[in-house]
Specification:
Elements: H1 2-27, E1 29-35, H2 45-52, H3 54-57, E2 60-66, H4 70-79, E3 84-89, H5 90-98, E4 103-111, E5 116-121, E6 137-140, H6 146-157, E7 163-166, H7 170-178, E8 185-188, H8 193-197, E9 201-206, E10 217-224, H9 225-230, H10 232-249, H11 254-263, H12 267-277, H13 291-300, H14 310-316
Parallel strand pairs: 1-2, 1-3, 6-7
Antiparallel strand pairs: 3-10, 4-10, 5-8, 5-9
Length: about 325
């Protein structure tokens, strides 16, 4: 009798276990993410949190697609090909929203511009951007990206006649700088810092040299408006997991190992990038500031025709309150 009961319990376990696994799997919602800046520290949060199991803990499975820059990311979100876009220039998000694009800002990616730097080959005659001429080319990723805005902002700041040149993602940009196709490349820490250490390239400018940008939320996380309206609870879970991942990244050295596995960047370079280019508060997803200045810059660069109204800003920026 006891043996029969044991067999029955074993059979029940065999039947129940797959069912339990199926229920767990079904409970996970898939979100499609488009992210610019593969290998950049600020845009790696979703990838690191996925690898660490943080998003899975919140019932989410992330399908991450990497783009050449913010311009491509915005288009992927507008089309509905992805649900969420990471590393989109705030001014560009405002501009496409003003034109009727179905996007909403659901979080801050980075506030401040000190993470983005501009470099030349070690043998370049340029010692600073002030040495640039009308023949000097300065790289940016895609039209409407934050690096596009920064390149134009630096040209304006230093009153130089250099030309902004689209070069694609950081890897493609580095190749073009080293081969002489473009004079000044861009990168976001920690990408290419190893080349700086090895003396192959020199940093000649940083985006925080553009006045008034230190407190501006310059890159944001956006969502497709229809997806947000339909599945707000799922997007909210993504945001909570994202914020939890930022806390984990800055408290657990294991994050550097995951970052190395994902990007190929040596751990000591990633650690240096964190220390010299990023403070944790820069990546606070709840922090949105300096929007008036962002709008002013977007208007001066002819992205926006006029400032967004308070009603428009309230509709566009749907960032959860901290603690909710």
């Amino acid at each position: 009798m006891r043996r029969a009961a044991t067999i029955a319990m074993s059979l029940l376990a065999v039947l129940v276990t797959p069912l339990a696994l199926a229920v767990t799997a079904a409970a996970e919602d898939t979100l499609k993410i488009a992210s610019g800046g593969h290998g950049n520290w600020d845009s790696s949060t979703s990838e690191l949190g996925r690898r660490a199991g943080i998003f899975k803990k919140h019932g989410l499975d992330l399908d991450i697609l990497y783009t050449a820059g913010g311009g491509e990311t915005v288009q992927a979100v507008i089309s509905g090909a992805v649900d969420i876009g990471v590393a989109v220039a705030t001014g560009s998000a405002m501009a496409v929203y003003a034109k009727g694009a179905p996007i909403r800002v659901v979080g801050s990616l980075v506030t401040g511009t000190g993470d983005t730097y501009y470099y030349v080959r070690a043998d370049s005659a340029l010692k600073s951007l002030k040495d640039a001429t009308e023949n000097t080319t300065i790289a940016y990723s895609t039209a409407g990206s934050s690096t596009n805005l920064f390149a134009l902002g630096l040209i304006k700041t230093y009153n130089i006649m250099a030309k902004a040149m689209r070069t694609g993602d950081p890897q493609a940009t580095l190749t073009q700088v080293m081969s002489g196709q473009v004079d000044v490349g861009y990168a976001t820490s920690p990408f290419a810092l190893q080349f700086v250490d090895e003396g192959k390239i020199r940093i000649i400018a940083r985006a925080d040299e553009i006045p008034g940008t230190e407190n501006q939320t310059v890159r944001v996380i956006i969502a497709n408006a229809s997806k947000l309206a339909k599945d707000r609870e799922v997007i909210d879970r993504y945001f909570k997991a994202y914020a939890e991942t930022v806390d984990w990244i800055y408290s657990d050295p294991e994050a550097l190992r995951y970052f190395h596995e994902y990007s190929g960047t040596p751990e000591y370079i990633a650690k240096k990038g964190m220390a010299e280019f990023y403070k944790k508060e820069m990546l606070d997803p709840y922090r949105v500031s300096g929007l008036d200045a962002v709008m002013s810059d977007a208007i001066s660069l002819k992205l926006l025709q006029a400032p967004l109204t308070k009603e428009q800003l309230d509709e566009l920026f749907q960032v959860p309150q901290r603690g909710r």
